[in-house]
Amino acid sequence: MSEEYDVIVFGAGVAGLWIANRLTQAGYNVIVVEKEKLGSGQTMASQGMIHGGQKYLLQGVLTPHAVAAATMPPRWQASIEGRGEVDLTSVEILSEEQVMWPAGSLVSRGAVRAAAARVNAECRKIETNDHPEPLRLHKLQGPVYALPEKVLEVRSLVLALARDLDGRILRGEVTDLTAEGVVTVSARSLCARLIVFAAGAGNEQALHMLGIGQRLTQRRPLRQVMVRPLPYALFGHGVAMGAQPRVTVTSHAIGGGEYVWYLGGGVAEKGAKMDKAAALRFAASELEHMFPAIPWSDKEWATWYGERAEPIDEKGRLPAAPVVRQWGCVLFAWPTKLTFVPALSDAVLGRFKDIPPAAKSPPPPLPVAEVGAYPWEVASWQTVA
Ligand SMILES: Cc1cc2nc3c(=O)[nH]c(=O)nc-3n(C[C@H](O)[C@H](O)[C@H](O)COP(=O)(O)OP(=O)(O)OC[C@H]3O[C@@H](n4cnc5c(N)ncnc54)[C@H](O)[C@@H]3O)c2cc1C
Predict the structure, then answer these.
(1) CA of 140 to the centre of ligand 1 (A)
(2) From the CB of 149, is ligand 1 less than 6 Å away?
(3) Residue 43: which pLDDT band, with cuts at 50, 70 and 90?
(4) Which residues lie below 8 Å from residue 228, measured CB to CB, with a gap of 6+?
(5) What distance in angstroms lies between residue 273's CA and the mean position of ligand 1's atoms?
């Protein structure tokens, strides 16, 4: 006979773990099945920025993304302070703020001012003497603002979300799935009243298993760039003209008071269209322009190439909010951004409102899934000529 659960969540990224926490608190018998390691898809590769929408205002208009994101930071803050829906009191905050600085020609100063004017009143202008060290070194001219948006240490986030699911996050491979809620995992037949796929790119495989041919997902590639060692941290967005930052920088301690800078934004979007060597040369030349006082030729470089696995709406666009779709007893969940996970969990819990907890089976005897690595912990490093 199949082992029975109220819920089987597939995927132990931030979405699956958050959803599993909330369902466990609601009294459901939940197990999480992870194909590789906790956070090993997009979550551990993310920059950990809890966007409140300000970054999206760089596009010059109040986008639906910006409006939807604005309600998320208070949800995260409540959990970080121990009065929210999940316990994030142990999560390390890498930075309370993200800096926005002009990273282009003279015109980019205007772009930063305009973006700052559009964002909420809490956006703070930083006086020249207080500019972050990497900007002060080359006496950056022009306005620099601080956005009140946190950057989280993502591993501590994953660990905090895994803590109350101890013994229930298992490693397994799904090979069969039905809309009636029966699933084969590593040769065991399991069943659940609802199955939740929060498996990032793995949602595509599950849709395929159910025979759903409709196009519901997209992949958008990125080539994040890593550079080390830097003696100072920086968190924020170098703004030039255009809808997206020229670079988005987060900094991660690697011991000895040094950091690896993890670069996204335009560097990662444009780098995705290049091979690794060209992307590294491009990133190095971008940093030489943006931070001319920092010596870059003595640094080590690496890239993380991956894909954002996202939903797509009927017009082929990225939805402005998280998405949940249901076929029979199987739900598919996409947060769209890490920031939106609290809203995603509301949408999933809404599907349980007429389903009282009932199942009693203990977790199946599958191996416990381990925590994944950061890209810079497993990268192969090189110099750039
Ligand atoms: C480089 C990068 C930077 C980003 N930075 C930010 C940021 O700063 N702020 C922000 O808000 N968002 C950011 N994002 C987006 C954010 O990371 C994602 O929206 C979010 O992590 C998605 O979480 P998830 O749990 O849905 O998916 P994932 O993190 O991809 O987790 C899915 C999990 O499912 C597992 N899995 C796959 N298939 C199966 C299967 N068949 N069975 C079981 N398990 C399976 C995978 O191994 C993985 O562990 C970034 C994304 C990228 C790629």
Answers:
(1) 35
(2) no
(3) very high
(4) 254, 258, 259, 260, 261, 299, 300, 376, 381
(5) 21
The matching CATH number, chosen from 3.40.50.150, 3.40.50.300, 3.40.640.10, 3.50.50.60, for 3-44+156-216+312-375 is 3.50.50.60
Chain-centroid distance of CA 87 in Å reads 18
Domain ranges of the chain: 3-44+156-216+312-375, 98-148+219-309
Q: Calculate how far, in angstroms, residue 311's C-alpha sits from the geometric centre of ligand 1.
A: 12
CA dihedral (360, 167, 338, 83) positive or negative: positive
Q: Summarize pLDDT for 163-221 with one digit per residue, the tens.
A: 999 999 999 999 999 999 999 999 999 999 999 999 999 999 999 999 998 899 999 99
CATH number corresponding to 98-148+219-309 = 3.30.9
